[in-house]
Specification:
Order of helices and strands: HHHHHHHHHHH
CATH architecture of the largest domain: Orthogonal Bundle
CATH superfamily of the largest domain: Tetracycline Repressor, domain 2
Shape: flat
Number of strands: 0
Keywords: DNA-binding, Transcription, Transcription regulation
InterPro entries: DNA-bd_HTH_TetR-type_CS, Homeodomain-like_sf, HTH-type_TetR-like_transc_reg, HTH_TetR, Repressor_TetR_C, Tet_transcr_reg_TetR-rel_C_sf
GO molecular function: DNA-binding transcription factor activity; transcription cis-regulatory region binding
CATH topology of the largest domain: Tetracycline Repressor, domain 2
Biased composition (Polar residues): 1-14
Structural class: mainly alpha
Protein name: TetR/AcrR family transcriptional regulator
Oligomer: single chain
Length: 243
């Protein structure tokens, strides 16, 4: 009987052995890759550039990572290690726990806006321990709240899809703001003025743009996330009561 084929992953590939003590560690490489991505973005990440920052040749990096794709798997998982999961999960606190985890994921994605770009790339598989830890916590919350396995899985996936989609939009906007060289509030006010003018033939859309004028941009983004998350959790509560 042959073993089933597996998807290639940074966590299933055996690490290469070296006789001497290596000058670099995998953690050093991943830490520096995150610093590079935070400061210069995805387009500027290459094994050669990373090697230069580490004062090492690109070939020496391949002792620890097979290729750039594997490096990105490691980077994404390490960043998700910043998300705190509940230490103690109880049925009565399911909504609070999901809210805090959702906020943590959003905050992490906005601290590292390139994450949404990397995770949207086709062909990358994320199976690392920190992602598994987050998934386990979310499924446990759903289970103690009373959701059957399949329903809890679907609810967890839907919640993460909302967080990721919302945060992707925010991250893209913040990247655009940074490129403009303007403070976020100034950029926001200019966009609102233009949008309000263009929306005048559409009364309901125009009404919403008028309602958003004068608000603080950063607070508005956060409030929108909280309100939309609340709507999602309200829906989960209705479904939970119907079980």
């Amino acid at each position: 009987m042959t073993a089933k084929s597996q998807v290639e992953s940074a966590w299933t590939r055996p690490q290469r052995q070296r006789r001497e003590t290596p000058a670099l560690s995998r953690k050093q490489i991943v830490d520096e890759a995150i610093a590079l991505l935070d400061s210069e973005g995805v387009d500027n990440l290459s094994m050669r550039r990373l090697g230069t920052r580490l004062n090492a040749g690109a070939t020496s990096l391949y002792t620890h990572v097979a290729n750039k794709e594997e490096l990105l798997q490691l980077v994404v998982d390490q960043v998700f290690g910043e998300v705190r999961v509940p230490e103690q999960i109880e049925a009565g606190n399911w909504r609070r726990d999901l809210t805090e985890m959702s906020r943590g994921v959003r905050d992490t994605l906005l601290r590292h806006p390139w994450m949404t770009i990397v995770m949207s790339s086709a062909g990358l598989v994320y199976l690392g321990p920190n992602i598994m830890r987050m998934s386990e916590a979310m499924l446990t919350i759903m289970e103690v709240a009373g959701f059957p396995d399949e329903a809890g899985d679907r609810a967890s996936n839907a919640l993460f899809s909302y967080i990721f989609g919302s945060s992707s939009g925010e991250a893209a906007m913040l990247t655009t703001v940074a490129r403009s060289g303007m403070p976020e509030q100034e950029w926001f006010e200019q966009i609102m003025a233009t949008s309000e003018q263009l929306a005048r033939p559409y009364p309901r859309v125009h009404k919403r743009y008028v309602a958003h004028q004068g608000i603080d941009a950063a607070s508005g983004r956060k409030d929108a996330f909280e309100q939309e998350l609340g709507l999602f959790l309200d829906g989960l509560e209705l479904r939970r009561r119907a079980l």
